[in-house]
Amino acid sequence: MQTEYAIEFRHVSKIYNLKSKDKNHKESKRFYALKDINFKIPKGEVVGVLGTNGSGKSTMSIILAGISEIDDGEMIVNGEQSLIAINTGLNMQLTGMENIELKGALLGLSKKRIEEITEGVIEFAEIGDFLYQPVKKYSSGMKSRLGFSINLCLNPDILIVDEALSVGDKGFAQKCIDKMNELKDDGKTIIFISHSLTQVREFCQKAMWIEGGMLKEYGDIEEVCDHYAEYVEYYNALSNQEKNAERDRKFAKRIIKAEPSFWKRILNKLRFGK
Known about the structure:
This protein is of the alpha/beta class.
């Protein structure tokens, strides 16, 4: 039987411009947020994504969700995807209730479907009268509750969870894990981005490790987690000076060397015959 894939990355790269902090130096550098990423995720699989700060995990999450476009390569997504991340997709000026209605309207859902989703969010989020208050007044945990609840109730084919369980109380985090286990049993594809090795080991079937904008490893959950844990232990044992050197080394590999301008190429040709 041929494997059906929910997501395929084929040589995917994402490039950002890094502007200089020096006002007198306006030239910006281009660097790879993600570089030449290749993987396939079968439908119904739960994959954990690991990586240190700045590795490219969140960039991958917004690309997977269709929020950001790639600069090179090809991404194939089979199914409707939804991103759950702290603050993502929430309008801070609107109330929680208005955010639910806005999300439904943007997706072109019927009034009846929006009402069904609203009932589900009220029951799952457990934020009481705060649902009628502007989101800007919410704590980070309450924002996470609302965002998580809305996206879970939308019942997408592909769920991308980016550090959404890192805030709030443990009770709600476990409630979310239980709900995602139900979705897993229903054959949903879940991409679980987290710093927590424990959560990734317990919840996911496979893991991928992103480091320095590149895919370092993808496969068996225990092997990838063990290798990542070894790297984190090594990195944490470094002095601050050594950590800075390690970060600079990784970042240097991501910088895209600027091509010389037209006139500079002409001058080089006149000077050196090149």
